[in-house]
Amino acid sequence: MLRQYELVDRVLSYDPNADEALINRAYVFAMKAHGNQKRASGDPYFSHPLEVAGILTDIHMDAETIITAILHDTVEDTGTTSEELAKLFGSAVARLVDGVTKLSRIEAQSVTERAAENLRKFLLAMSDDIRVLLVKLADRLHNMRTLHFIKKEEKRRRIARETMDIYAPLAERIGMYEFMREMQTLSFQFLEPEAYASITKRLEQLNKGDTGQIKRIINGIEELLEKAGIKAKVSGRQKHPYSIWKKLEERHISFDQLSDVMAFRVIVDNTEDCYRALGILHGKWPMVPGRFKDYISTPRRNGYSSLHTAVIHNENLRIEIQIRSQAMHEQAEYGLAAHWAYKQKTVPDKFQQSGWIRDLVEILDNAESPEELLEHTKMAMYKDRIFAFTPTGELIQLPLGATPVDFAYAVHTDLGDQTVGAKVNGRVVPLGTRVENGDQVEILRSAAQTPQISWLNFITTGKARAAIRRFVRHKERSDTLTLGKQLYEAIIKRLPAPLSENALEAALLRLNLKEADDLFEAIALRNITDDAVMEALMPGMALQDATAPLPPLVNHAISIEGLTPGAAYDLAECCHPVPGDRIVGLRRPHAAIEVHVIDCPHLAETNPEDWVDLRWNDKAEGATVRLKVIVKNQAGALGVVATIFGAHKANIINLVLADRDENFHVFNVTLEVRDLQHLMRILAALRAAGGVVQAEREQLPYDQA
């Protein structure tokens, strides 16, 4: 266990002006607070916060951060309060400790909810002071180093998975690659023990069989650069087991086929020497195509800068080489911490409002459930990135597979919400197009546009998904309330007498509902029966003769103007209603109303009391319809059909050859049309065309829709 004087000496070695007395006071306070508590290893619990503080001294953190590390578990695991810490060690330390503290006292129903709530508080604190993240990463790193002492395998795997999914990506995002690599290796050991053991064994065999190969390569690179007048420090290492395993999985190859197990690092004096060294190395050995990356001209979002290349060395060995200056190296090893000036009393502005942290906080605000929070946060932190540019040359980083919609939300949430189209490299493309590295993306916007539910099918970033889901939730509730109000008015018309002014208020009390909107929502979602609403509004209605016929639920059609498909209502898949069809709404418990064509076979299987008479708004247009088209088995017949669709500006969503024989081909076509009149004109044109035997609108049994 790290001793008190050793910890103080470490801090004073890089910060002679550190408050030694305050560090000693924190040491004594934490030791007394934790008392006789033990860790799973049997060591005194106090050894853990000391080791966390020791990890942070390795990256030269300021005294406040070291004190925070010493005290970080006192509020969670002892009777210490934040007020007590603020009085003894200052408000800054108390705030940092509070940011790191897990919400162990929160009442949560599942592990997912506890993890999400812990992450929620952690992200908020991190956005206020990034040192919270540094302490938390050091805390998790030490916990992973001692994870093998935990007896339950299930708990070990859960902690390892959380580390791999959350904390290792966080370390990568702030450029702390040493922390990231060790976390990944330790997590990999518990998540994939067989793979870890196999790869580790192979690496040990390579080390035993090494006859000084790595040393020879290092000496050769140093001599080559020295002859060119470049002073360089070269080091070599084998890749860590998780990195190797990931390459094997991605490339679907065996360990024997992996040719770049070794990586070498060249550290020179300045940026100019980086490019000079690159030219010399490429001049000496053939470069492996597609493996060169210039992170100096386009740094990663976490500030990482370096040149990466791979060459075929003299010994017929493919090796990876990283070339960087000393300043770049410090950034690469310790990331954000490399920029930390321990004499500063505040967080550097550069990291106070880091863009990706703002994105995480926005995701935090938009997430409705613990599952959403964890899902979106992981999406925001995973590291496979591409670079794209705005028309003004601003660099935007995105995950692989990102679309223009993701790009728009990365620029600004309002731009994402108002996206109507996109140009990539000057060419108009569908919004679901994947953005490639180096693309220039221009977003076309309209103030009248709103996020589309269909975007959820192709977007990749957590920020975009969180923003769209937030809009959908708000729109869904708004639509549901609109529909519920109309149904409520229809219910009132069924009552035998007008209502008093306070009837609604009294009904809410009887139904144990807080406000009118709760009642409207319950009516729309069929969470409450119409009879129950009538009874609450006018007691005694339920005592009427059950055989006496009641007026219909609605004696006029309810418009679905302004409502969004997929929110307040769903268009039935069995009959595909289009504007102009006579339609009926089917009310379903705890679900949106399902809209059917009046002659849909499925309606015969339902209770008419659940029907709601609906009508399309006069301006409604746009829906999909299913057609069955039979053509003669002759050349060009399908072309005739497609030409008719194109001439009528109807978009083909799907076309399937359902059946064929010597004489006829049967096609099932899903078509996008404006309204019923549009559909009828298309059907008339098909039936009049040569080669078309039959063209009909098709409805499917409900269980086949």
UniProtKB/TrEMBL annotation:
Kindly give the CDD domains that the UniProt entry links to this protein. ACT_RelA-SpoT, HDc, NT_Rel-Spo_like, TGS_RSH
**Cellular component per GO?**
plasma membrane
Q: Name one GO biological process term.
A: response to starvation
Listed A to Z, the keywords are: Transferase
| Pfam families, sorted | ACT_4 (PF13291), HD_4 (PF13328), RelA_AH_RIS (PF19296), RelA_SpoT (PF04607), TGS (PF02824)
Residue stretches spanning the membrane: none
All copies of the HD domain together span: 45-144
GO MF, one term, reads: guanosine-3',5'-bis(diphosphate) 3'-diphosphatase activity
Domain TGS, first and last residues per copy: 384-445
Top EC class for this record: transferase
* Recorded coiled-coil stretches: none
Reaction catalysed?
A: GTP + ATP = guanosine 3'-diphosphate 5'-triphosphate + AMP
The EC number of this protein is 2.7.6.5
Q: Which SMART domains match?
A: HDc, RelA_SpoT
- SUPFAM superfamilies (alphabetical): ACT-like (SSF55021), HD-domain/PDEase-like (SSF109604), Nucleotidyltransferase (SSF81301), TGS-like (SSF81271)
Is GTP-binding a UniProt keyword of this protein?
A: no
Domain named ACT is located at 626-700
Under the heading NCBIfam families, the entry gives: spoT_relA
Family as reported in the entry's similarity comment: Belongs to the relA/spoT family.
Q: Which PANTHER family match?
A: BIFUNCTIONAL (P)PPGPP SYNTHASE_HYDROLASE SPOT (PTHR21262:SF36), GUANOSINE-3',5'-BIS DIPHOSPHATE 3'-PYROPHOSPHOHYDROLASE (PTHR21262)
Biological function = In eubacteria ppGpp (guanosine 3'-diphosphate 5'-diphosphate) is a mediator of the stringent response that coordinates a variety of cellular activities in response to changes in nutritional abundance.
**What is the name of this protein?**
GTP pyrophosphokinase rsh
Read off the lineage from the record: Bacteria, Pseudomonadati, Pseudomonadota, Alphaproteobacteria, Sphingomonadales
